[in-house]
Amino acid sequence: MNTFLWILLLVVAFGGGMFAGGYILRKQVEKEFSENPRLDVNVVREMMSQMGQKPSEAKVQQAYRNIIKHSKAAANKKKK
Q1: What is the pLDDT along the chain (80 residues), one digit of tens a residue?
Q2: HEC assignment per residue over 51-79
Q3: Is 44 buried (19+), middle (13-18) or exposed (0-12) by CB count in 10 A?
Q4: Cα–Cα distance for residue pair 57/3, rounded to 1 Å
Q5: 15 vs 10, 12, 24, 26, 66, CA distance in Å?
Q6: Nearest Cα to 44, choosing from 69, 72, 67?
């Protein structure tokens, strides 16, 4: 019976460690994405030119601000 208890304890500890590690990793990745968005002004400018628009600086900045605003709103909505 003592061996069964050790095996059960190891399985529970392994499962708890996997769960805690996954949770911590998820929080760190979310924090990294919120602090350093993957899009920047140059990427937005390139996307607009590929869509056939002639991007002025005002349009690029407005599109970039909208993207950042919507991503922050989605992150805040997801937290609630």
Answers
A1: 799 999 999 999 999 999 999 999 999 998 888 787 778 888 888 888 999 888 889 989 998 899 888 888 877 777 66
A2: CCCCCCHHHHHHHHHHHHHHHHHHHHHHH
A3: buried
A4: 70
A5: 9, 5, 14, 17, 41
A6: 67
